[in-house]
Write a structure and sequence with these properties.
With 168 residues, the chain is mainly alpha-helical. Helix 3 runs parallel beside helix 5 and helix 4 packs antiparallel against helix 5. The radius of gyration is 17 Å and the shape is globular. It has a domain of 74 residues. Helix content is 51%, strand content 0%. The protein contains 6 helices and no strands. Pfam families: DUF4385 (PF14328).
Length: 168
């Protein structure tokens, strides 16, 4: 029998360019963290245009709009949409934090090995030194607050549990 945790992992082998997960929700997997955030359609195309974090004002407007989408998906009983909005809020936090720590946005020294593109982690590369940008740090705090609102939403938690019980 397959490893139970492997069944819950995000499936990177699907053809997301031609797959509409609203039409085939049974294929969606929550995965860990932000997995699949820039793949899953039509949600990526619905949310990505609002995802911005250059300044705290832009981050506030962006995170509020994405959270509105989260609530809209919730109102429609669309767990995948809720989870994708949650992932974009989380990614707003992590990317803002990365730019707060590293002005160029590059966390590691050297190029990503070809076989590791699209995956997170250092893959044997050294981490670059940090420098704190207070503007990006504030953007990160703004996104983090909205991310927590989504992640801790009682309906989201219930729907996530139901989803995982039904689809793995």
């Amino acid at each position: 029998m397959a490893n139970a945790n492997a069944d819950k992992a995000f499936n990177y082998n699907l053809d997301y360019r031609s797959l509409n997960l609203r039409e085939h929700p049974e294929l969606y997997r929550v995965g860990k963290g932000e997995q699949g955030v820039l793949l899953v359609e039509p949600y990526k195309s619905e949310i990505l245009p609002y995802w911005k974090f250059k300044t705290p004002e832009i981050a506030r407007e962006s995170s509020e709009k994405i959270y509105e989408l989260f609530l809209s998906y919730k109102g429609n009983g669309d767990f995948i949409g809720m989870d994708m909005a949650r992932k974009f809020l989380q990614m707003g936090y992590t990317r803002s934090r990365r730019y707060a720590n590293h002005r160029t946005g590059q966390k590691y020294d050297g190029p990503v090995p070809a076989d590791q593109k699209g995956r997170s982690g250092a893959h044997g590369r050294d981490q670059l030194p940090r420098d704190e940008d207070p503007v990006k740090a504030e953007s990160a705090r703004i996104f983090y607050g909205k991310y927590l609102q989504a992640r801790e939403d009682a309906d989201y938690k219930r729907m996530k549990k139901e989803w995982q019980e039904k689809y793995g």
